[in-house]
Write a structure and sequence with these properties.
The complex is a heterodimer of chains A (343) and B (273). Chain A has 343 residues and is of the alpha/beta class. Helices cover 34% and strands 17% of the residues of chain A. Chain A is globular and about 65 Å long. The relative contact order of chain B is 0.14. Classes of the chains: A alpha/beta (343), B alpha/beta (273).
């Protein structure tokens, strides 16, 4: 079905102003040398666009907060709509779902925020220079996981319903706005628009080859040393990564009660895996640098059946040393000598 | 919904100072904590932090729990300052256990050093409970010096069992200390015993360097990679595979371990660090 874009924006505005206690979050642009988007609570002064490309911060910060009390569980959650999530972030949420809500463990804060949120994804209509989802089997539009997906076509959005929660939203929209039937032409047009973005992504990544990186672990360690030379080990790449969820627990009790707070941790930091007594499995920078790549392409595949890199390019954008994730994986992939590990 | 971070408060009802650096806390939790030998718990002190420790008591006991702890870092330093009557928190148990059913009718070898004897004490006590199920138990226990030896009275007690053989060694005997058992690295005790590696299990726990060279020796003696059980200690923060600090390749030490066979992890990196 179709809805006029202006109607949809008006629907979001009304929801955010309404008395049904639903919060609306949308990506708001901040103009600079390159357009940057930050998810912000919708208010009257916002000038926003649900298209474009991914936000600066990964969407995980809205579900898996950088610092949160896990014992006791922090404040109750409100219902909210997050509109304008891109396909890379949707994939990342699907991976976090596997990591944080499973048979062995449920992160209650994460689950509460997941359950209370309506996810509206939108097709990318532009690309950021670091975007490279297509190198990793990804697409600049979402195919699963969303409650609703919006694909812009002229002045309209084509709405795809993904879940029952999506149907609830449609009912809300239906109360005040007109939904139109779509047709074959609309789908063809959308397919053309999508292909244009894929083509743009292909062009901007033309010097990189799509790979699955299954053999990354076997590559000679000396080359990792070379690739990591500029790395200062700050951990920006892991904090900004939409699928990194490593945490550190602190006990913040002042009395006899037990209070536990979790915060993001980073495998790039020297103390990350160090144990009492001083032993560390990865004392050298290049070992920690390599660990991030192996975690994404090897360990996460083993743990969750899929690669941990969604190709959003945020780590490249955030890197103080201007290390490009694509270049590193490309360079390492080209190496033919294998690693020698001794026990 | 169950909060995985929830702790069971417990009271320290006794403390055994095993050696200058190692003490055993005897804890009575508010409600019984059932575990299987080899699994670990997270022990926390309010306002200080928590750490992973494998209980050293038998898994047939759940109303009280013994935990043997060496003073090595921030949290353990505070643990060594606790007194009888203090409150601690316990969550767990987590991880894999020793597969006792695979040890039935076998000649079991246990190789441990230093504070690595802690989980082995739990295993040993659990084995003793059903001693008829097992052929024999040979326990090789090492320490740096006689003063560092832990479970002193217990070993004397355990030697009385028919099916049990115990050999102890210290690396060195400083002047003034007395010691009437072996003086060598614990792994060298392997040369002094009759070994039948065929289809028999060996369980190893100790400092990383001991585990490494112990495993190499056991392979040389003919133990199968599948029969060498290692208790791997990594930085197990959360205990349920979420924080990822303890990842050994595609494995979590906390979830897939801490008990691994050597065959499982031999191709992973930095397993001994």
């Amino acid at each position: 079905m179709l809805i006029k874009i202006s109607d949809f924006y008006s629907f979001l505005d009304n929801i955010s102003k309404g008395n049904n206690n639903i919060e609306v979050l949308i990506p708001v642009p901040v103009n600079g040398t390159e357009r940057r988007f930050f998810f912000t609570r919708l208010n009257e002064s916002n000038n926003y666009d649900l298209g474009f490309f991914r936000s600066v911060d990964p969407i995980k910060v809205l579900f898996y907060q950088p610092r949160e009390s896990v014992l006791p569980i922090s404040a109750k959650t409100v219902k909210r709509i997050i509109a304008g999530i891109k396909s890379c972030d949707m994939k990342a949420i699907q991976l976090l779902d596997k990591a944080l809500v499973n048979n062995d463990f449920v992160d209650i804060s994460y689950k509460n925020l997941r359950d209370s949120t309506y996810i509206i994804t939108t097709d990318c209509t532009e690309t950021h220079s670091s975007c490279h989802c297509t190198l990793l089997d990804g697409k600049p539009f979402t195919e699963s996981g969303f409650d609703l997906n919006l694909s812009p076509v002229d002045d309209y959005y084509l709405i795809t319903i993904g879940t029952d929660k999506g149907k609830e939203l449609i009912e809300l929209i239906n109360q005040n706005y007109r939904l139109l039937d779509d047709n074959e032409t609309v789908h063809m047009e959308i397919s053309q628009l999508r292909n244009k973005i894929i083509e743009k992504l292909t062009n901007q990544n033309e010097k990189f080859l799509p790979r699955n990186h299954d053999d990354l672990r076997e590559k000679d360690l000396a080359h990792w040393n070379e690739e990591s030379k500029e790395c200062i080990g700050c951990g920006a790449c892991t904090n900004i990564c939409p699928t990194c969820y490593c945490l550190i627990l602190n006990d913040e009790s002042t009395g006899k009660e037990f209070i536990k707070v979790r915060s993001y941790d980073s495998c790039q930091l020297h103390g990350y895996a160090r144990v009492a007594g001083g032993a560390s499995p990865r004392p050298k920078m290049y070992e920690r640098f390599r660990n991030r790549y192996l975690c994404k392409f090897d360990y996460m595949k083993k743990n969750f059946g899929e690669s941990g890199c969604v190709g959003c390019g945020r780590c490249t954008e955030a890197c103080a040393a201007k290390i490009d994730f694509r270049e590193v994986t490309q360079n390492i992939s080209m190496i033919t000598t294998t690693a020698k590990h001794s026990i | 919904m169950h909060n995985a971070y929830e702790v069971v408060p417990g009271t320290i009802y006794n403390i055994i100072q095993e050696s200058p650096l190692i003490r055993t806390l005897q804890i009575r939790p508010e409600r019984p904590i059932k575990f299987l030998t080899g699994q670990f718990v997270e022990l926390s002190l309010p306002g200080i932090g928590e750490g992973p420790f494998t209980p050293s008591s038998s898994h047939y006991t759940s109303d009280v729990m013994d935990i043997t702890i060496m003073k090595t870092g921030f949290v353990t330093e505070y643990i060594h300052k606790t007194s009888i009557g203090d409150t601690v928190g316990i969550r767990g148990p987590y991880g894999s256990r020793y597969p006792l059913e695979k040890f039935h009718n076998k000649d079991i070898l246990i190789l441990g050093g230093g504070c690595g004897l802690a989980p082995l004490r739990s295993l040993f006590l659990t084995l003793l409970h059903d001693i008829d199920q097992y052929n024999s138990i040979t326990f090789l226990a090492g320490a740096k010096t006689p003063k560092d030896c832990i479970y002193k009275e217990l070993f004397a007690e355990w030697k009385k069992y028919n099916k049990v053989k115990i050999y102890r060694s210290v690396d060195i005997v400083p002047e003034g200390d007395s010691w009437d058992e072996e003086v060598c690295l614990v792994t060298k005790l392997l040369q002094k015993i009759k070994i039948d590696p065929k289809d028999n299990p060996v369980i190893v726990c100790g400092p990383p360097v001991m585990m490494k060279f112990g495993t190499m020796d056991l392979l040389k003696y003919g133990y199968s990679e599948n029969n060498i059980y290692l208790s791997m200690e990594k930085k197990m923060y959360c205990g349920f595979g979420q924080c990822r600090h303890c990842v050994i390749g595609g494995y979590y030490a906390c979830k897939d371990g801490p008990v691994f066979t050597y065959a499982q992890i031999k191709n992973e990196e930095a397993i001994w660090e």
